[in-house]
Design brief:
- By secondary structure, this protein is mainly α.
- It contains 14 helices and no strands.
- The longest helix has 35 residues.
Length: 345
């Protein structure tokens, strides 16, 4: 059967809707307890949900910068369409294991309506690379935020903590090296070569590379060209993606304030609360991405929030509350993404 773009669109839509249903029935609390948490959040739900308009907006601007740097001129696609595809792509990523098996193919399919397929593919791959590259910078810089808080006596430092922080630094430095090679020389052909070493996929990999050799080389050339020829687009995208993580941290900060945790109030207290929120998000996202093969990271994100909040000396109950509210936010934004999928430009 030939899969048309409309059929694929419907498949992605069904997958996302199924994800919403699964997430609704995989809470570790009863619906009565869930309702109690939502009531506790009250009007704070509005800024918690609203902050993601900004987060996704920064993501969309980052992707727009990459598209324009990749094609060498203004994007022949409206910002609203990029913004819509950004939200829908992330909604699909939540629904699939190894986030990206749903969102990235959908973005390529839709973006190829506006630009040629090779540039659409390389633009989506470049943005996915940038998204993860910014993650590593977020984790890396968060280590130094923690060390700064240690110096002012706000955070503890033990041998175990030092070992963990050192391991994360080495992990990030290794990632920076791998990404630098990928940006300089391309990544697609190399990754397909690695896939070819997996049992049962060797034949498929060889045939795919043979049938699409020129297209794959062109995509890799476009990936390396952005880094070497348009540094403004590259670094603009990186800064925007990193900024989205910092804005995302406000979500946790709002929930800490909801529980009256403001470190004494005032400007100093608010700054300290925000930095704590950055550390919570950094640890949780690191933990979740290390075990990112689980669909919708069921149980992983919750565990990450509980562990990271407990590490800051706060109650596990607060960690459970934060994880539940974040899961509700995800469900709502997945539903928004699915609705936007059916919205015509």
């Amino acid at each position: 059967m030939v899969w048309t773009k409309q059929r694929l669109n419907n498949l992605f839509f069904i997958l996302g809707c199924a994800a919403c249903v699964v997430m609704l029935f995989t809470f570790d609390v009863s619906f009565i307890e869930l309702w109690g948490h939502l009531c506790h959040a009250g009007y704070w739900l509005l800024p918690i949900l609203g902050i993601w308009f900004v987060v996704y907006g920064l993501n969309a601007f980052a992707w727009k910068a990459i598209i324009e740097g990749n094609i060498g001129g203004p994007a022949p696609i409206s910002f609203w369409r990029i913004y819509r595809l950004t939200i829908t792509g992330y909604a699909l990523n939540y629904a699939t294991p190894v986030g990206g098996l749903g969102g990235e193919p959908y973005r390529i399919m839709e973006l190829s309506k506006d630009i040629d397929k090779q540039h659409a593919t390389s633009s989506v791959i470049l943005y996915a690379m940038m998204h993860f590259f910014a993650h590593f910078w977020f984790w890396f810089i968060s280590i130094f935020i923690y060390l700064a808080l240690v110096l002012v006596g706000d955070m503890p430092m033990t041998t175990a903590i030092g070992t963990v922080l050192g391991t994360i630094i080495l992990f990030c430095l290794l990632a920076f090296y791998i990404f630098s090679r990928g940006y300089r020389h391309g990544l697609v052909v190399y990754v397909l070569g690695l896939i070819g070493k997996i049992p049962f996929l060797k034949g498929w990999s060889r045939r795919f590379r043979g049938n699409h050799a020129e297209a794959l080389r062109n995509i890799d050339a476009q990936i390396s060209a952005l880094y070497s020829q348009d540094t403004k687009a590259f670094y603009s995208s990186l800064i925007l993606e990193y900024s989205s993580r910092m804005v995302q941290s406000l979500e946790v900060m709002f929930m800490l304030l909801l529980f009256g945790i403001d470190n004494g109030g005032g400007l100093d207290g608010m700054v300290l609360t925000y930095l704590h929120s950055v550390l919570i998000v950094a640890f949780t996202t690191l933990f979740a991405n290390l075990i990112g093969f689980l669909p919708m990271q069921i149980g992983v994100q919750e565990g990450g929030f509980v562990l990271s909040i407990a590490a800051l000396g706060l109650s596990a109950a607060l960690g459970i509350f934060v994880s539940i509210i974040c899961r509700v936010r995800e469900i709502i934004w997945i539903a928004v993404g699915m609705a936007l999928m059916k919205l015509r430009d």
